[in-house]
Write a structure and sequence with these properties.
324 residues; globular; alpha/beta; 10 helices; four-stranded mixed sheet
Length: 324
Protein backbone atom coordinates (compact mmCIF):
# COMPACT_ATOMS: atom_id res chain seq x y z
CA UNK A 1 0.00 0.00 0.00
CA UNK A 2 1.44 3.34 -1.06
CA UNK A 3 1.20 6.10 1.51
CA UNK A 4 -0.03 9.51 0.35
CA UNK A 5 2.68 12.14 0.12
CA UNK A 6 2.22 15.12 2.48
CA UNK A 7 0.74 18.17 0.79
CA UNK A 8 3.03 21.19 0.65
CA UNK A 9 1.54 24.54 1.59
CA UNK A 10 1.28 26.98 -1.34
CA UNK A 11 3.73 29.89 -1.46
CA UNK A 12 2.75 32.90 0.64
CA UNK A 13 2.76 36.50 -0.56
CA UNK A 14 3.41 38.76 2.44
CA UNK A 15 3.60 42.54 2.16
CA UNK A 16 5.20 44.58 4.94
CA UNK A 17 5.20 48.36 5.02
CA UNK A 18 3.19 51.56 4.91
CA UNK A 19 -0.61 51.53 5.14
CA UNK A 20 -2.40 54.88 5.22
CA UNK A 21 -5.31 56.88 3.83
CA UNK A 22 -5.00 58.61 0.45
CA UNK A 23 -7.11 61.51 -0.77
CA UNK A 24 -6.46 61.88 -4.50
CA UNK A 25 -7.59 65.14 -6.16
CA UNK A 26 -7.19 66.49 -9.67
CA UNK A 27 -6.51 67.82 -12.12
CA UNK A 28 -4.66 71.01 -11.13
CA UNK A 29 -3.55 73.27 -14.00
CA UNK A 30 -1.43 75.62 -11.90
CA UNK A 31 -0.54 76.22 -8.28
CA UNK A 32 -3.28 78.39 -6.71
CA UNK A 33 -2.60 81.65 -4.94
CA UNK A 34 -2.40 81.35 -1.15
CA UNK A 35 -5.74 82.10 0.52
CA UNK A 36 -7.90 81.15 -2.48
CA UNK A 37 -10.16 78.17 -3.14
CA UNK A 38 -9.87 75.79 -6.10
CA UNK A 39 -12.58 73.44 -7.39
CA UNK A 40 -11.32 70.13 -8.81
CA UNK A 41 -13.44 67.79 -10.95
CA UNK A 42 -12.33 64.40 -9.55
CA UNK A 43 -11.49 62.90 -6.17
CA UNK A 44 -11.27 59.58 -4.36
CA UNK A 45 -10.68 58.73 -0.71
CA UNK A 46 -9.09 55.29 -0.50
CA UNK A 47 -6.61 53.03 1.23
CA UNK A 48 -3.09 54.09 0.31
CA UNK A 49 0.57 53.69 1.03
CA UNK A 50 2.81 51.42 -1.02
CA UNK A 51 2.05 48.31 1.04
CA UNK A 52 -1.73 48.79 0.86
CA UNK A 53 -1.55 49.61 -2.86
CA UNK A 54 0.38 46.39 -3.44
CA UNK A 55 -2.07 44.34 -1.37
CA UNK A 56 -5.08 45.82 -3.18
CA UNK A 57 -3.43 45.07 -6.53
CA UNK A 58 -2.98 41.47 -5.36
CA UNK A 59 -6.70 41.33 -4.50
CA UNK A 60 -7.52 42.66 -7.97
CA UNK A 61 -5.44 39.80 -9.44
CA UNK A 62 -7.31 37.19 -7.41
CA UNK A 63 -4.53 36.50 -4.91
CA UNK A 64 -4.81 36.18 -1.12
CA UNK A 65 -2.06 38.48 0.16
CA UNK A 66 -0.95 38.87 3.77
CA UNK A 67 -0.52 42.53 4.74
CA UNK A 68 1.50 43.53 7.81
CA UNK A 69 1.61 47.17 8.87
CA UNK A 70 0.02 49.63 11.26
CA UNK A 71 -3.00 51.87 11.68
CA UNK A 72 -3.86 54.75 13.97
CA UNK A 73 -6.36 54.84 16.81
CA UNK A 74 -9.20 56.89 15.31
CA UNK A 75 -12.28 56.66 13.09
CA UNK A 76 -10.20 56.78 9.92
CA UNK A 77 -8.45 53.58 11.00
CA UNK A 78 -11.77 51.75 11.19
CA UNK A 79 -12.73 53.05 7.74
CA UNK A 80 -9.35 51.93 6.43
CA UNK A 81 -9.92 48.37 7.65
CA UNK A 82 -13.17 48.22 5.66
CA UNK A 83 -11.31 49.13 2.46
CA UNK A 84 -8.99 46.15 2.98
CA UNK A 85 -11.74 43.53 3.18
CA UNK A 86 -10.76 40.22 1.62
CA UNK A 87 -7.12 40.75 2.54
CA UNK A 88 -5.54 39.01 5.52
CA UNK A 89 -4.31 41.94 7.59
CA UNK A 90 -2.13 42.19 10.70
CA UNK A 91 -2.09 45.89 11.60
CA UNK A 92 -0.48 47.26 14.74
CA UNK A 93 -2.82 49.78 16.39
CA UNK A 94 -0.77 52.82 17.37
CA UNK A 95 -1.68 55.58 19.84
CA UNK A 96 -1.73 58.16 17.06
CA UNK A 97 -3.89 59.65 14.34
CA UNK A 98 -3.96 57.64 11.13
CA UNK A 99 -1.44 58.87 8.58
CA UNK A 100 -3.10 60.68 5.67
CA UNK A 101 -1.65 61.67 2.30
CA UNK A 102 -3.26 64.22 -0.02
CA UNK A 103 -2.19 63.69 -3.62
CA UNK A 104 -2.70 66.57 -6.05
CA UNK A 105 -2.54 65.47 -9.68
CA UNK A 106 -1.29 68.09 -12.12
CA UNK A 107 -1.93 68.49 -15.81
CA UNK A 108 0.84 66.63 -17.63
CA UNK A 109 1.04 63.79 -15.13
CA UNK A 110 3.13 65.30 -12.33
CA UNK A 111 2.01 64.80 -8.72
CA UNK A 112 2.40 66.65 -5.42
CA UNK A 113 1.89 64.88 -2.08
CA UNK A 114 1.26 66.25 1.40
CA UNK A 115 1.59 63.53 4.06
CA UNK A 116 1.14 63.67 7.82
CA UNK A 117 3.46 61.82 10.18
CA UNK A 118 0.72 59.92 11.99
CA UNK A 119 0.92 56.23 12.85
CA UNK A 120 3.69 55.30 10.39
CA UNK A 121 6.20 56.51 12.98
CA UNK A 122 5.31 53.64 15.31
CA UNK A 123 5.36 50.29 13.43
CA UNK A 124 7.88 48.02 15.21
CA UNK A 125 10.09 45.14 14.02
CA UNK A 126 8.80 42.97 16.88
CA UNK A 127 5.23 43.29 15.58
CA UNK A 128 6.31 42.42 12.03
CA UNK A 129 8.29 39.33 13.06
CA UNK A 130 5.52 38.14 15.38
CA UNK A 131 3.06 38.09 12.46
CA UNK A 132 5.42 36.88 9.72
CA UNK A 133 5.15 33.08 9.88
CA UNK A 134 7.70 30.52 8.72
CA UNK A 135 7.52 30.45 4.93
CA UNK A 136 6.52 27.58 2.70
CA UNK A 137 8.80 26.98 -0.33
CA UNK A 138 8.71 29.77 -2.91
CA UNK A 139 7.13 32.39 -0.63
CA UNK A 140 7.87 36.09 -1.09
CA UNK A 141 7.97 38.93 1.44
CA UNK A 142 7.74 42.39 -0.14
CA UNK A 143 8.99 45.27 2.02
CA UNK A 144 7.96 48.81 1.08
CA UNK A 145 8.79 52.41 2.07
CA UNK A 146 11.41 51.85 4.80
CA UNK A 147 12.27 55.57 4.78
CA UNK A 148 8.74 56.38 5.99
CA UNK A 149 8.88 53.85 8.85
CA UNK A 150 11.50 55.01 11.37
CA UNK A 151 10.64 52.24 13.81
CA UNK A 152 11.56 49.64 11.18
CA UNK A 153 14.34 51.62 9.53
CA UNK A 154 16.56 51.56 12.60
CA UNK A 155 16.76 47.75 12.45
CA UNK A 156 15.89 47.21 8.78
CA UNK A 157 18.90 45.11 7.75
CA UNK A 158 18.26 42.70 10.63
CA UNK A 159 14.56 42.55 9.73
CA UNK A 160 15.34 41.59 6.12
CA UNK A 161 17.85 38.99 7.30
CA UNK A 162 15.28 37.46 9.66
CA UNK A 163 12.66 37.31 6.90
CA UNK A 164 15.19 35.49 4.74
CA UNK A 165 15.94 33.10 7.61
CA UNK A 166 12.21 32.32 7.82
CA UNK A 167 12.42 31.06 4.23
CA UNK A 168 11.14 34.05 2.25
CA UNK A 169 12.50 35.48 -0.95
CA UNK A 170 13.02 39.08 0.13
CA UNK A 171 11.71 41.78 -2.24
CA UNK A 172 12.32 45.47 -1.57
CA UNK A 173 11.01 48.72 -3.01
CA UNK A 174 13.18 51.35 -1.32
CA UNK A 175 11.19 54.46 -2.18
CA UNK A 176 12.86 57.86 -1.92
CA UNK A 177 14.69 59.10 1.22
CA UNK A 178 13.23 62.42 2.42
CA UNK A 179 16.73 63.60 3.33
CA UNK A 180 18.09 62.74 -0.13
CA UNK A 181 20.79 60.26 -1.11
CA UNK A 182 23.41 61.33 1.40
CA UNK A 183 26.56 59.24 2.00
CA UNK A 184 24.92 57.92 5.18
CA UNK A 185 21.81 56.85 3.25
CA UNK A 186 23.98 55.12 0.63
CA UNK A 187 25.76 53.14 3.31
CA UNK A 188 22.47 52.26 4.97
CA UNK A 189 20.82 51.09 1.74
CA UNK A 190 23.82 49.01 0.71
CA UNK A 191 23.36 47.08 3.94
CA UNK A 192 19.75 46.36 2.95
CA UNK A 193 20.55 45.24 -0.58
CA UNK A 194 22.78 42.41 0.60
CA UNK A 195 19.62 40.61 1.78
CA UNK A 196 17.50 41.16 -1.36
CA UNK A 197 16.34 38.50 -3.82
CA UNK A 198 14.31 41.07 -5.79
CA UNK A 199 15.08 44.80 -5.78
CA UNK A 200 12.27 46.83 -7.38
CA UNK A 201 13.17 50.47 -8.09
CA UNK A 202 12.42 53.11 -10.68
CA UNK A 203 15.05 54.53 -13.02
CA UNK A 204 15.86 57.57 -10.88
CA UNK A 205 16.21 55.43 -7.76
CA UNK A 206 18.53 53.01 -9.57
CA UNK A 207 20.72 55.87 -10.78
CA UNK A 208 20.76 57.38 -7.28
CA UNK A 209 21.73 54.13 -5.55
CA UNK A 210 24.52 53.61 -8.09
CA UNK A 211 25.98 57.12 -7.90
CA UNK A 212 29.47 57.77 -6.59
CA UNK A 213 31.61 60.94 -6.37
CA UNK A 214 32.12 60.77 -10.16
CA UNK A 215 28.34 60.46 -10.61
CA UNK A 216 26.52 58.01 -12.87
CA UNK A 217 24.26 59.01 -15.77
CA UNK A 218 24.19 55.75 -17.77
CA UNK A 219 21.40 53.32 -16.81
CA UNK A 220 23.23 50.19 -17.92
CA UNK A 221 26.27 51.16 -15.88
CA UNK A 222 24.01 52.00 -12.92
CA UNK A 223 22.34 48.59 -13.20
CA UNK A 224 25.71 46.83 -13.13
CA UNK A 225 26.80 48.80 -10.07
CA UNK A 226 23.59 48.16 -8.14
CA UNK A 227 23.53 44.47 -9.10
CA UNK A 228 26.91 43.98 -7.46
CA UNK A 229 25.39 45.09 -4.14
CA UNK A 230 22.72 42.35 -4.19
CA UNK A 231 23.06 38.76 -3.04
CA UNK A 232 24.23 36.27 -5.72
CA UNK A 233 21.43 35.32 -8.12
CA UNK A 234 19.22 38.24 -7.08
CA UNK A 235 16.97 40.03 -9.58
CA UNK A 236 17.28 43.77 -10.09
CA UNK A 237 14.11 45.23 -11.61
CA UNK A 238 14.06 48.81 -12.90
CA UNK A 239 10.63 50.29 -13.64
CA UNK A 240 10.74 52.56 -16.69
CA UNK A 241 7.23 54.01 -16.53
CA UNK A 242 5.37 54.01 -19.85
CA UNK A 243 8.46 52.56 -21.55
CA UNK A 244 8.19 49.23 -19.68
CA UNK A 245 10.72 47.61 -17.38
CA UNK A 246 14.24 46.21 -17.27
CA UNK A 247 15.33 43.06 -15.45
CA UNK A 248 18.91 42.11 -14.61
CA UNK A 249 20.18 38.83 -13.15
CA UNK A 250 23.50 36.97 -13.30
CA UNK A 251 25.13 39.72 -15.34
CA UNK A 252 22.49 39.83 -18.07
CA UNK A 253 19.78 42.41 -18.72
CA UNK A 254 16.47 42.06 -20.52
CA UNK A 255 13.89 44.72 -21.34
CA UNK A 256 10.14 44.48 -21.75
CA UNK A 257 8.72 47.34 -23.80
CA UNK A 258 5.06 48.29 -23.36
CA UNK A 259 2.66 49.43 -26.01
CA UNK A 260 2.06 53.18 -26.28
CA UNK A 261 0.12 54.18 -23.17
CA UNK A 262 -3.05 56.24 -23.13
CA UNK A 263 -3.14 59.44 -21.12
CA UNK A 264 -3.94 58.47 -17.51
CA UNK A 265 -5.39 60.82 -14.92
CA UNK A 266 -4.32 58.91 -11.78
CA UNK A 267 -0.81 57.43 -11.75
CA UNK A 268 -0.63 57.04 -7.94
CA UNK A 269 0.53 53.52 -7.08
CA UNK A 270 1.83 52.68 -10.56
CA UNK A 271 5.06 51.19 -9.24
CA UNK A 272 3.23 49.31 -6.48
CA UNK A 273 0.88 47.73 -9.02
CA UNK A 274 3.85 46.71 -11.15
CA UNK A 275 5.60 45.19 -8.12
CA UNK A 276 2.59 43.01 -7.36
CA UNK A 277 2.13 41.80 -10.92
CA UNK A 278 5.83 40.97 -11.24
CA UNK A 279 6.04 39.13 -7.91
CA UNK A 280 2.74 37.30 -8.47
CA UNK A 281 4.13 35.97 -11.75
CA UNK A 282 7.34 34.87 -10.03
CA UNK A 283 5.24 33.04 -7.42
CA UNK A 284 3.75 31.18 -10.40
CA UNK A 285 7.29 30.31 -11.59
CA UNK A 286 7.12 32.62 -14.59
CA UNK A 287 10.33 33.50 -16.43
CA UNK A 288 11.90 36.93 -15.95
CA UNK A 289 10.50 38.33 -19.21
CA UNK A 290 7.04 36.91 -18.46
CA UNK A 291 7.13 38.46 -14.97
CA UNK A 292 8.15 41.86 -16.36
CA UNK A 293 5.25 41.64 -18.79
CA UNK A 294 2.82 40.68 -16.00
CA UNK A 295 3.99 43.65 -13.94
CA UNK A 296 3.43 46.04 -16.83
CA UNK A 297 0.02 44.55 -17.67
CA UNK A 298 -1.09 44.82 -14.04
CA UNK A 299 -0.13 48.50 -13.80
CA UNK A 300 -1.71 49.24 -17.20
CA UNK A 301 -4.96 47.57 -16.13
CA UNK A 302 -5.23 49.36 -12.76
CA UNK A 303 -4.14 52.93 -13.57
CA UNK A 304 -6.93 53.88 -16.02
CA UNK A 305 -9.60 52.87 -13.50
CA UNK A 306 -11.04 55.73 -11.47
CA UNK A 307 -12.32 55.36 -8.87
CA UNK A 308 -10.29 52.24 -8.15
CA UNK A 309 -12.73 50.93 -5.56
CA UNK A 310 -14.80 49.81 -8.55
CA UNK A 311 -12.27 47.03 -9.34
CA UNK A 312 -13.67 43.69 -8.13
CA UNK A 313 -11.56 41.01 -6.46
CA UNK A 314 -10.06 38.77 -9.13
CA UNK A 315 -11.27 40.98 -11.98
CA UNK A 316 -7.74 41.46 -13.31
CA UNK A 317 -6.55 37.85 -13.02
CA UNK A 318 -6.02 37.77 -16.79
CA UNK A 319 -2.95 39.98 -16.29
CA UNK A 320 -1.09 36.92 -14.99
CA UNK A 321 -1.94 34.69 -17.94
CA UNK A 322 0.89 34.06 -20.44
CA UNK A 323 0.41 36.08 -23.62
CA UNK A 324 0.72 34.48 -27.05
Amino acid sequence: MKLDQPQLSPPQFSIIGDVSVDLVLGTLDGWPKIGTEQLLPRSELRAGGSAANSALAARHLGLSPHLIGAIGNDDLAQWLLLQLSGIRVELQTCASDTTMSVGLLHTGGERTFFTSYGHLQHLTPDFVLKHLPQASPGSVALFTAPFLLPGLREHFSQLLAQASAKGYQVALDTGWPPEGWTPQVHEEVEGWLAHCDHLLVNELEAMSIASNPDDCHDLELAVQRVARLLKPGAHLIVKLGAAGALGHVDGRSIRYATQEALEIFDTVGAGDSFNTGYLAARLNRASLIEALAAGCRTASAILPRFPRKSIAAGELSHCLLPQS
